[in-house]
Write a structure and sequence with these properties.
The structure is a single chain. Helices cover about 90% and strands about 0% of the residues. The chain is an all-alpha fold.
Length: about 100
């Protein structure tokens, strides 16, 4: 199966219940968007944790091989970048939420 189709099915199956329950409960669009953003950040955080674990395994299994060590270093940079992106997403969510709800 195509990877893009598989990812689309995965994310839609994760986000569909959030949107449905948000509409059944309070109803405003802010709750729906907030719930979707929370799920996306939660999934992204889980992916970052998995990338960190894989990076550690790559470093441990490289055993001095320069090619495998280069792969481990690139995975380390990807893990750092992913962590920074998740932190920035959390910060952006807080800033945008404060702007919308406090009327700055």
């Amino acid at each position: 199966m195509n990877k893009k189709a598989l990812l689309l099915i995965l994310f839609s199956s994760l986000l569909a219940p959030v949107v449905v329950f948000a509409q059944a409960g309070q109803g405003p669009i802010e709750n729906i968007v907030g719930n979707v953003v929370n799920v996306v950040i939660f999934v992204a955080g889980g992916i970052v944790v998995i990338i960190w674990a894989v990076t550690g395994v790559l470093f441990l299994s490289s055993q001095g091989d320069s090619g495998r060590l280069t792969t481990a270093k690139s995975a380390l940079f990807a893990a750092i970048a992913g962590t920074i992106l998740v932190i920035l997403a959390l910060s952006a969510k807080a800033i945008i939420g404060n702007i919308i709800f406090s009327g700055i």
